[in-house]
Specification:
The chain is α/β, with parallel strands linked by helices. It has 2 domains: 2-64, Ubiquitin-like (UB roll) (Roll), CATH 3.10.20; 70-157, Translation initiation factor 3 (IF-3), C-terminal domain (Translation Initiation Factor IF3), CATH 3.30.110.10. Helix content is 35%, strand content 25%. The protein has helices at 16-26, 47-64, 81-96, 115-128, 160-163, 190-195; strands at 2-4, 10-13, 29-34, 41-45, 70-75, 100-106, 133-142, 145-152. The protein has a 4-stranded mixed β-sheet. Strand 1 and strand 2 (10-13) form a beta hairpin. The protein is elongated, with a radius of gyration of 34 Å. Mean pLDDT is 81; it is low at 160-166.
Length: 196
């Protein structure tokens, strides 16, 4: 087996008995790092320190992972036009926030005999959202439901309009004749005009 010392430098290729003896002399453990390699790679190191470093690397990897949120939109084949528009706007908002959208269409009663109506509705939604989404799962029927999964389109930036918030409650001041600064007078409040 190939042995690596505690300093990270290669000690050489030796038998497992010699490697164990070397680790024992230093008061450390012999840890098998790559058993699939030819010859297998082992390291002389404190096992507690090895486990600590391994746990730390796993935590860093989990922290670096991006957790994908899945939002759901529910429809029926007889959903009205306005309600569909509201659901499409909600889906667009979810996709702008980098979430996946599961479009879930449920059949009730005899609606199940006309899956082409539901398929046309799901295709229409996919077409309306084609600028911000890609279809990750084509519409598929599962019992009394039909599902389609949309994901955010790659390489697309968030829309600036959804990020901008207009200040509310700030009334604009109307220009009154005789009170504009260009005409030489200061703007008077209604109370001041009545007092004079």
């Amino acid at each position: 087996m190939r042995v690596i010392g505690p300093d990270g430098k290669q000690v050489g290729v030796m038998s497992s008995r010699d490697a164990l003896g070397l680790a024992y002399d230093r008061g450390l453990d012999l840890i098998e790092i790559a058993p699939q390699a030819d010859p297998p790679v082992c390291r002389i190191q404190d096992y507690g320190k090895y486990r600590f470093e391994q746990t730390k690397r796993e935590k860093e990897a989990r922290r670096a992972q991006k957790k994908v949120e899945v939002k759901e939109i529910r429809l029926r084949p007889k959903t009205g036009e306005h309600d569909i528009a509201v659901r499409v706007r909600a889906a667009r908002r979810f996709l702008d926030d980098e979430a996946k959208v599961k479009v879930w269409l449920r059949f009730r009663g005899r609606e199940v005999t006309h899956p082409e109506v539901a398929l046309a509705l799901l295709e229409r939604i996919a077409n309306e959202l084609s600028d911000v989404a890609i279809v990750e799962q084509r519409p598929a029927r599962e019992g009394r439901t039909m599902l389609m999964v949309l994901g955010p389109a790659p390489g697309r930036k968030k829309q600036a309009s959804s990020q901008e918030q207009k200040p509310r409650g700030q009334p604009q001041q109307a220009a009154r004749p005789g009170s504009s600064p260009e005409e030489g007078g200061a703007a008077e409040s209604p109370g001041e005009a009545a007092a004079s």
